[in-house]
Amino acid sequence: xxxxxxxxxxxxxxxxxxxxxxxxxxxxxxxxxxxxxxxxxxxxxxxxxxxxxxxxxxxxxxxxxxxxxxxxxxxxxxxxxxxxxxxxxxxxxxxxxxxxxxxxxxxxxxxxxxxxxxxxxxxxxxxxxxxxxxxxxxxxxxxxxxxxxxxxxxxxxxxxxxxxxxxxxxxxxxxxxxxxxxxxxxxxxxxxxxxxxxxxxxxxxxxxxxxxxxxxxxxxxxxxxxxxxxxxxxxxxxxxxxxxxxxxxxxxxxxxxxxxxxxxxxxxxxxxxxxxxxxxxxxxxxxxxxxxxxxxxxxxxxxxxxxxxxxxxxxxxxxxxxxxxx
Length: 326
Hints:
Radius of gyration: 20 Å
Structural class: mainly alpha
Mean pLDDT: 82
CATH topology: ABC transporter involved in vitamin B12 uptake, BtuC
Number of helices: 14
CATH superfamily: ABC transporter involved in vitamin B12 uptake, BtuC
Distance between the termini: 40 Å
Number of strands: 0
CATH architecture: Orthogonal Bundle
């Protein structure tokens, strides 16, 4: 019953934010409403849901509440693909387009995932995958910094704007491209909810229950990485949603059961992203702020307050901001 009321309140919160973003619908031009405003609102919700689902999958995979898509190198790989497109593309005479940017970041995420699986030698050791993912993240970040040294002011500005995350570039129809993969991955997780619960109790328990550890890990890493790379290709890196949304859902529901956690996680992800986007558009008049810093400013203190004692809050908050992916 508590989880049902919790979901209802989240639906109410999302509904209030949607109405707030459409408060000037009476004076909006129909073209702006259907081509920009509605795609931005729906896109932010579905992006948040997808990122939250990715975070839940990574936390299940590593059995670690601090896990997220950036830990396996997917998000840094997408950033490197985008950096190559912007900085090297201009030298090759390739013009900047939204389609090209999305395609390059998706290719970067897929190549990072392929490299991760090759170096990890499959799905046998989550710890090896975690360590390799962290090393890959540092290597990709170093490559991006080197590329920036050879870029001009316009290229650096383009990459910096993309790296801050934004739902502004979403157009009509993009919401469906974001919803469908999130829906498919969510259904797969729901079907596997009981094997995933057994997996959380340890390899020995899962194997004794007749569950294939390799197949579970393969499903989690492929599903989470591909979904994270796909979303990042549309809106850029959005931090903390995948980390915070599953954690809050588990704390409120007071359960690790996927049957009870999947829906609240999706709703929290959508609510957090829509909240960040709403603040980005309304905190300052005539100025649209980037979403990524706002999501970090929302997620970091919430996560720190819920995981640390009062005395440790400043330390945890500082450490989280230090390891925030670019």
